[in-house]
Amino acid sequence: DIASVLGVRPEWLSTGAGEMLADSIQITQMQTPVTPQNGIYRVDVLDVKASAGPGALITNDFIETIRAIEYTSEQARSLFGNRPAHHIKVITVTGDSMDTTISPGDEIFVDISSTHFDSDGVYVFVFGKTLHVKRLQMQRDRLAVISDNPIYEKWYVEPGDEDQFYVMA
């Protein structure tokens, strides 16, 4: 289901209430070394669409793995460093607000162990009940949500909105 793939509690995903992270998942993921099976590093391609636009409504709690991409250990190390395979997923981007960086229909690699904003960059996040892929930048006491396509205006996650904002990757 979506919650287990993202390492969050199902109750939090559907209602936004309570603790976000599933403690057992968080601890397991952080302590698992990179050990590809039989020299193969497998990355799941998920049936998830993150919007580079107004936001993709989260409509169900189940995420299906469509297929997987397999890499040799050397290829994986070059692409993903020492990140464990279960941290790396592939999702599809819809919308054109990130055009020039990410085009509509692109499949992108995401690191689902990144669950908080720590520096300027492109993130997958939930705001309210919609899933986005956007550039985030801290500006004074609020977080700017920036589209790389210049026809879209930036918007902000204000300090009072923090309970509706969750970084997913």
Report on the structure:
- By secondary structure, this protein is an alpha+beta fold.
- It has a single domain (2-167), classed as Umud Fragment, subunit A (Ribbon), CATH 2.10.109.
- Helices cover 17% and strands 37% of the residues.
- Strands 2, 6, 7, 8, 9 and 10 form a 6-stranded antiparallel beta sheet that branches. Strands 3-1-4-5 form a 4-stranded mixed beta sheet.
- The longest helix has 9 residues, at 23-31.
- It is globular, with a radius of gyration of 16 Å.
- Mean pLDDT is 82; it is low at 24-34.
Question: What are its keywords?
Answer:
single chain; 169 residues; alpha+beta; Umud Fragment, subunit A; 6-stranded antiparallel β-sheet; 37% strand
Q: What's the layout of helices and strands?
A:
Elements lengths: L1 H5 L3 H6 L7 H9 L8 E12 L4 E2 L7 E8 H8 L7 E7 L12 E5 L9 E7 L2 E10 L2 E5 L8 E3 L7 E3 L2
Parallel strand pairs: 1-4
Antiparallel strand pairs: 1-3, 2-7, 4-5, 6-7, 6-10, 7-8, 8-9
CATH topology: Umud Fragment, subunit A
Distance between the termini: 16 Å
Shape: globular
Helix content: 10-25%
SSE-based structural type: alpha+beta
Q: What is the architecture at the second tier of CATH?
A: Ribbon
Mean pLDDT, as a whole number? 82
Mind telling me the C-alpha Rg?
16 Å
Low-confidence stretches: 24-34
Quick structural summary:
It holds the Pfam family Peptidase_S24. The protein is an alpha+beta fold. Helices cover 17% and strands 37% of the residues.
